[in-house]
TrEMBL record:
Basic and acidic residues bias (residue ranges): 497-517
InterPro entries the record matches: Glycyl_radical_YjjI-like
Protein name according to UniProt: YjjI family glycine radical enzyme
Residue ranges of the region described as Disordered: 491-517
Organism: Longivirga aurantiaca
């Protein structure tokens, strides 16, 4: 990029009436980064990036902060922070002020923290002796401040798996405030999480599309007890995070295959996994050795993040199109999510990718034994004609039971996150306990994350984050969005039709029996 182009683009950003001040600053920083050379890679990687086989999801040419960081907030509260000049908090007021101050200093790819911690367990000890009215007022102020000061729906908080006053109060506030920020996950454990808490969360989804429900037993088995769900629905180790997230376009991968399914699994797919891993290794090495993030970060200095708890995320998307392409090339007509053989082929492809990623060492990924975590990447606003992650295409989803049966076998491979979004109609509101049963049953049969959306409220779940329909209308009318994620959401709605998921009825088995056999 020559200096004339840089000046022209910078002037456009500076003068743009559609950008807030902070959005202009972030866009100008991204423009400056584009003037630098990216980490050196082979011509195969350069070609893969240019032709859409591999995508770095706009991470920039010069990695200078990890994509996702999960600071050890409990440790910070216990020890205080020399960098922030804060002593360990002694009451709820001080604890909330401490966390809000710390959030403002946690970097990520978005420019905002993607992880706010297990907010209920962080604050519950400080809530002892605080009356309900005061607790609600303090947490309301905290939740409003998060939305106003961190205006990005990839900012993510966690609750559970245990019941608590703080957790219940946050759910009530979500129903009152109807904010898209922060995103929210409830960790659900079959033994520890009471049905009444899951039911409370289900009613919250009816109001505002949050929270996700994550399989706590599955997550702890893969990541240990200290994990967090961040950004959309990405799961990583607390005290660490992910250096980078690079994704492989399985749809494009299949289009480049010469031969049948066996050729794809034996030759084409390994080649494309290797190219993706090469780009990941280059970005990780640049971040750690050239930018030296972990040598200069106050989070590392104070023991709140550790290089040996870091890994990276190997993302895949376009499984549906990959399967359908391979089936059609072999003379078949089956579709992923609808035909048993086609769906089973999708499972084989995911298992093969998992095998290849697990056999590919990457630098500075000790947080997962020197390997990347496999991730079902949920898509971005510019995706056209390709389905997010391992999902069934939007608008083509089968009925509830068949939908869950088709996608659940994939979930075991994606320790760093996989999400399948269900859209329910208003029958769900009349049957909240049935939704609890769906969540419990889906998790019990092997789903890692259960996410559903009510098609009649003001919220649309895009990939893993939320947008209000009213905010999209305001963006269309004025061209301005306070939440930067709203701009991305508008692109996803336009290009991927994220608002057109096939809604499912939530009714009794007796009212809609499945065919026998």
């Amino acid at each position: 990029m020559d200096m004339s182009e840089v000046r022209t683009r910078a002037r456009t950003l500076v003068d743009s009436p559609a950008l807030t001040y902070k959005q202009r600053v972030q866009a100008l920083a991204g423009l400056a980064e584009e003037t630098l050379d990216p980490p050196p890679t082979s011509t195969a990687v350069t070609d893969a990036l240019a032709t859409g086989l591999v995508c770095d999801i706009g991470e920039g040419h010069a990695p200078y902060r990890p994509r996702y960081l999960l600071p050890d907030y409990p440790k910070a509260l216990r020890q205080g922070s020399e960098f922030l000049g804060l002593k360990p908090p002694t009451d709820l007021y001080e604890a909330v002020a401490f966390l809000l101050s710390m959030y403002s200093q946690v970097p990520s790819i978005t420019g905002y923290p993607v992880y706010l911690g297990d907010v209920d367990s962080l604050l519950e000890p400080y809530a002892e002796g605080v009356d309900d009215e005061t607790l609600t007022k303090i947490l309301r102020l905290m939740w409003v401040t998060i939305d106003r000061s961190l205006p990005d729906a990839f900012t993510h908080a966690n609750l559970g798996p245990d019941d608590s006053r703080v957790g219940r109060t946050i759910l009530a506030l979500e129903r009152e405030l109807l904010q898209t920020v922060p995103n929210l996950t409830l960790k659900v454990d079959a033994e520890r999480t009471p049905d009444s808490l899951v039911l409370d969360a289900v009613r919250t989804v009816f109001a505002c599309g949050k929270p996700h429900f994550v399989n706590h037993a599955m997550m702890t088995a893969d990541l240990g007890p200290d994990y967090g769900v961040v950004s959309c629905y990405n799961s990583l180790r607390v005290g660490g995070g992910s250096h980078t997230l690079v994704r492989l376009n399985l749809a494009e991968s299949a289009r480049r295959n010469v031969g049948g399914v066996d050729d794809y699994l034996a030759a084409t797919l390994p080649e494309h996994v290797a190219v993706t891993a090469e780009l990941m290794a280059a970005r990780i090495t640049s971040l750690v050795e050239q930018a030296q993030f972990f040598d200069h970060s106050w989070l590392a200095d104070e023991g709140l993040v550790h290089l040996d708890r870091m890994s990276a995320m190997f993302g895949v998307y376009g499984l549906a199109e990959c399967v359908d392409s391979l089936v059609a090339a072999g003379g078949g007509t089956g579709r992923y999510g609808h035909d048993a053989d086609a769906t089973a082929l999708g499972w084989r492809i995911v298992e093969r990718v998992a095998e290849l990623v697990a056999a590919t060492p990457l630098p500075y990924c000790e947080g997962n034994g020197g390997r990347a975590f496999l991730h079902s990447q949920s898509g971005i606003d510019s995706d056209l004609g390709v389905t997010a992650g391992t999902r069934i295409p939007i608008g083509d989803e089968p009925p509830l039971y068949e939908h869950l049966a088709a996608v659940t076998p994939n979930h075991k491979w994606f320790a760093s996150g996989v999400s399948d979004i269900l859209s329910f109609d208003d029958t769900a509101v009349r049957n909240p306990q049935a939704c609890v049963d769906v969540v419990r049953g889906a998790l019990a049969t092997g789903m890692r994350d259960v996410t559903f959306n009510l098609d009649s409220n003001d919220f649309i779940r895009i990939t893993g984050y939320l947008v209000r329909k009213s905010d999209l209308a305001k963006l269309e009318a004025t061209g301005v969005a306070r939440h930067g994620s709203d701009v991305l959401a508008a692109g996803s709605v336009a290009n991927s039709h994220s608002d057109k998921r096939a809604p499912k009825r939530v009714i009794s088995h007796e009212s809609a029996p499945r065919a026998a056999g």
